[in-house]
Design goal:
elongated, 159 residues, single chain, 28% strand, 7 strands, alpha+beta
């Protein structure tokens, strides 16, 4: 039996569990959206494959997050400058140049979202992250058929 299956609990009227991410070296929560009774086989199969294929989809997420960061940097920079912070402080949390190493220092995985049984599709899930440059809204990556479908604030991860 998968370890994550042994740790399922009810929280906020939804089933949740977690797994240890080898990539991030930390536990990541898994939330079964709209599921408060029993995890169905298609949901369980998806979670098993999400865990097994972690490197594959995380690398896609990181590439998409770097692109998103580059596209939204100017808007975030304006917001940070309005706070009258020193340029060095802004650079610490919102570096002008971004790469995978810098990005990984600025993000923390939060939760993987699995759709309810009736809409759960293989390879389709959300990945929510916290980030240093937007602590209020975070980041979200939504996958369809194992491909990045959308990137944005945390609410994107809900599909």
């Amino acid at each position: 039996m998968e370890i994550w299956l042994k740790n399922i609990k009810l929280q906020d009227d939804e089933l949740i569990t977690s797994y240890f991410s080898k990539f991030f070296n930390t536990d990541i929560s898994i939330r079964f959206v709209g599921t408060n009774n029993q995890i169905q086989p298609n949901q369980a199969n998806l979670v098993t494959d999400v865990i097994k294929n972690e490197i594959f989809w995380i690398e896609k997420a990181i590439d998409a997050l770097i692109q998103y960061y580059k596209e939204t940097y100017a808007d975030y920079k304006i917001g940070w400058e309005l706070s009258n912070l020193d340029d060095a402080v802004i650079e610490q949390y919102l570096p002008k140049e971004i790469n995978q190493t810098k990005l990984l220092k600025l993000i923390t995985p939060s939760e993987i979202y699995i759709s309810p049984e009736e809409s759960c599709e293989y390879g389709t899930f959300g990945f929510g992250l916290e980030c240093e440059w937007d602590i209020e809204h975070g980041l979200g990556v939504y996958f369809k058929n194992w491909e990045v479908y959308e990137v944005g604030s945390m609410d994107v991860a809900f599909g």
